TrEMBL record:
Matching PANTHER family: BACTERIOFERRITIN
Binding of Fe cation 2, residues: 51, 94, 127, 130
Cofactor(s) essential for the protein: heme b
Keyword annotations of the record: Coiled coil, Heme, Iron, Iron storage, Metal-binding
Protein name listed in UniProt: Bacterioferritin
PROSITE patterns reported for this sequence: FERRITIN_LIKE
GN (gene name): bfr
Similarity field: Belongs to the bacterioferritin family.
EC number: 1.16.3.1
Length: 154
């Protein structure tokens, strides 16, 4: 099925965001593991795997629409030097992703591609969940203080 070229471009923009998120979460996971924060590392790894699934769904849809997935483009990756910086950077990335998905959902509806819109809405629900999880981590760091929070992440 030949898809709307502008929508395919948007899907590739979303793919670039997902590919960057995979890398950012994975690096943060490995850093947390290296520092001995196994629980936090698992948290980041699970989020990275979800982002991989998002990238896969976008690639599948781009191909279905007879487009070419562009996997060589990545959005900027922001690696935090500390756990609070990592959580804050991930939070900012999720906010950007949510904005992009909301705009893409409107675009898909405008070109009457409701199947793509459904896929984007499902991914958006995951991104909303990620944002909520990151805000919980930010709240825990603030309420517990960083040393106490980190002591719970072994």
């Amino acid at each position: 099925m030949k898809g709307n070229p502008e929508l395919i471009d948007t899907l590739n923009d979303l793919l670039a965001s997902e590919l960057a998120a995979i890398n950012q979460y994975m690096v943060h996971a490995e850093m947390a593991e290296d520092w001995g924060y196994e629980r936090l590392s698992e948290n980041f790894k699970k989020r990275s795997i979800t982002e991989m699934k998002h990238a896969e769904r976008l690639i599948e849809r781009i191909l279905f629409l007879e487009g070419t997935p562009i996997v060589s483009n990545l959005d900027d990756i922001h690696i935090g030097a500390t756990i609070p910086q990592q959580v804050d950077n991930d939070h900012a990335s999720e906010l950007t992703a949510i904005k992009m998905y909301n705009e893409a959902i409107v675009q898909a509806g405008n070109v009457l591609d409701y199947a793509t819109r459904d896929i984007l809405e499902a991914i958006l629900r995951d991104e909303d969940k990620h944002l909520d999880e990151l805000e919980e981590l930010q709240d825990q760091i603030e309420q517990m203080t960083l040393p106490t929070f980190l002591s719970t992440q072994n």
